[in-house]
Amino acid sequence: MLNFSHQLNQQQKQSQKLAMTQALQQSIQILQYSTDDLLAYLENKTLENPLMEMDVTTGIYDEPYAVRGASYQGDDEQNVFANIPDNSVSLFEYLIEQIHLNYRDTYLRQLIIFLVEFIDVNGYLSIDLEDAAEKTGSEYIQMLDALTLLQQLDPPGVGARDLQEALMLQIERDESAPEMAYIVLEEHFESFANKKWKPIASQYKISLADIQEIYDYVQTLTPNPGAGFGESFEHQIYPDIIVKEEDGMLSVLSTKRGQPNIVFQKKYFDQMNQSDDKEVKKYLKEKQAEFEWLQKSVLQRGETILRVGEEIVKRQHAFFTDPNRPLKPLKLKELAEIIGVHESTISRAVNGKYLQTDFGVFELRHFFTTAVGGSESEEETSASNVQQLVQRIVDQEDKRKPLSDQKILELLKEQGVEISRRTVAKYRDILGIPSSTNRKRYES
C-alpha cells in the first residue's frame, strides 16, 4: 500500500476582476482625447462606417483661441508681424533662398551654403570655422568671409556663434539701438549681463541710467534668431466648455466641438437592410452597434467634462469673479469623490481640455493646485495664490531698491503665509522673476 504524505484538496475561490474589454479601452481613450484628436478620430470612423456621419456645425463659442509666439500691445496701425517670414518654410530653406537671390554663383557662395548646413534650429552656427575650413579645403580667411556674408542675411542674428554675437549682430542692424549698446556688449558682455555697471559707466563716462537704457533695449532682442521657423506660428485651441457671467451668475456650457454630434444614416441603413444577403445584414448590425457605442461614448465624454467644469467653477468661484483670480487648493482626488468617479477619470477629463472665459482660455488642469501652510485663522492658500502674492509684491517694489527674498518672506508672513525662503526663491524662478540684484534699475 502506498502512503501519500499530502492530501489533494479541491477548493473553489471566487474573485472579482474588471475585464478591460476593447470597448472599455476605447471609451477611456475617447475621454482622454483632446478636442482636435477626438474630431480626427471620429472623422476616421465615419470613413470606416457608412452608417455614421459627424455634424461639424459650429456654434458661437467654437471660434479658435490663437496662442501666438508674440503678442501685440498698443494702438498703432503698424503690423508687428509684417516682417515675420512664412513659418511653413524651414530656416534652411529661407536662408538658401536668400543666398541664391543675393550672391553670385562663386566659390564663396558654395562656402556660405556649406555653413548653412550647420545652422541649428535657433539660428546659431554649430561648427568651428577651422573645422569648416578643413572639411572644405578652404582657407580660414575665406570661411570667415563666408560667415560674414551669411550673418548679413535675415533673420538678424543668424549665423552667430554665441549669445553675445547674436545680440551684437541684431544691434548692428538696428538704427534705433542706443549709441553705446554695441561697444558695451562687445567689450563688457559678462559684466553687463551681471549688472556690474559702475566700472563700465566710469570707463565710458556715461551714467548708470544710460546703461539701464541699453539693458532695457537688449531685453527686446531675441536670444534665438532662428526660433519659429519650420513650425506653425499660431497654435489654435478649441475650448471644450465656456464660462459666462451674467448679473453675477456663472453658467457653464459645452461647445459643439467639445461635444460633437454623430448622426445615424437611417435612410442608407433602411435601403441596405432590404437585402436578403446575410453577410450584408450582419455587416449592418455590426456597424449600427459601433455607431451606438460611439454615440454613447462621445456623449458620456462631453457630460463628464461638463460635470468636471461645473464642479471646478463651484469650487473656484472667486477665480471667475475676482479680478485677482485667486485659486483655492483643489486635488483631482477631491473632485473625483464629489462627482463619484475614479481619480484617473478626472485626470483624463482635464488633460488637454480647455475652458474659455471672457478674460482668457485655461486648461482645466490649471484649476488644480496644492496647498501651502498658512495661519490657523485663515483658509489654506494654494501655491498658485502665493505665487500671485510674490508677483504682486515684486510689481509694487521700488525698483531702485528691490526686495530680497528674505524681505519678501517677511511681507508674506504679515499676510498670514508661512513658507521658507527657499520656496520664495523657487516661486521667483517659476514666475521668471530675477534676483534682487538683477531687478535693480538705475533711473535718470
UniProtKB/TrEMBL annotation:
Stored PANTHER family: RNA POLYMERASE SIGMA-54 FACTOR (PTHR32248)
GO molecular function: DNA binding; DNA-binding transcription activator activity; nucleotidyltransferase activity; sigma factor activity
UniProt name for this protein: RNA polymerase factor sigma-54
Pfam families membership: Sigma54_AID (PF00309), Sigma54_CBD (PF04963), Sigma54_DBD (PF04552)
Domain of life from the UniProt record: Bacteria
Gene Ontology, cellular component aspect: DNA-directed RNA polymerase complex
Record keyword Transferase present: yes
Lineage: Bacteria, Bacillati, Bacillota, Bacilli, Lactobacillales
UniProt keyword Oxidoreductase, yes or no: no
Annotated keywords: DNA-binding, DNA-directed RNA polymerase, Nucleotidyltransferase, Sigma factor, Transcription, Transcription regulation, Transferase
GO BP term (any one): DNA-templated transcription initiation
PROSITE patterns: SIGMA54_1, SIGMA54_2, SIGMA54_3
Signal peptide: none
Organism of origin: Vagococcus zengguangii
Family: Belongs to the sigma-54 factor family.
